[in-house]
UniProtKB/TrEMBL annotation:
Signal peptide: none annotated. The chain crosses the membrane at residues 14-35, 56-82, 88-107. GO terms for biological process: sodium ion transport. GO terms for molecular function: symporter activity. Belongs to the sodium:solute symporter (SSF) (TC 2.A.21) family. InterPro entries: Na/Glc_symporter_sf (IPR038377), Na/solute_symporter (IPR001734), Sodium:Solute_Symporter (IPR050277). It is found in: Cell membrane. This is Sodium:solute symporter. It is a multi-pass membrane protein. Keywords: Cell membrane, Ion transport, Membrane, Sodium, Sodium transport, Symport, Transmembrane, Transmembrane helix, Transport. The lineage of its organism: Archaea, Thermoproteota.
Amino acid sequence: MNGYPPIPKPTPEYLIAASAGLALFLVASAAVGVVTRKRKETFESFLVGHRDIGPVVTGLALCATWMSGWALLGLMGITYLFGWPGMWLAGVWTLVGLAPAALLTGLKMRMYSSKFGAATVP
């Protein structure tokens, strides 16, 4: 025995509930796509949201992008290495790195993307 508790085996009820939840999520996602599809006239308006998405939605998208790989892998490693106090290290680097990058480049990116009609960054 290695001292760790054994990995629990999923029950049939759990598998059915998880499969039903996943199917419901996929159906809901498809329904949202079908309903909102008619609101976008062009592919570019789909990509850039008519260029009228406010700062709250943009900030949430930036946070979701930033937190994807970092939160899944890096933050677990820092927490494992330093314990819960390591979470402060992650927060400090988020403030030191992400906030200035967004503030310094966000307005310029918006200006140049409108000027050149860019939908993505090359």
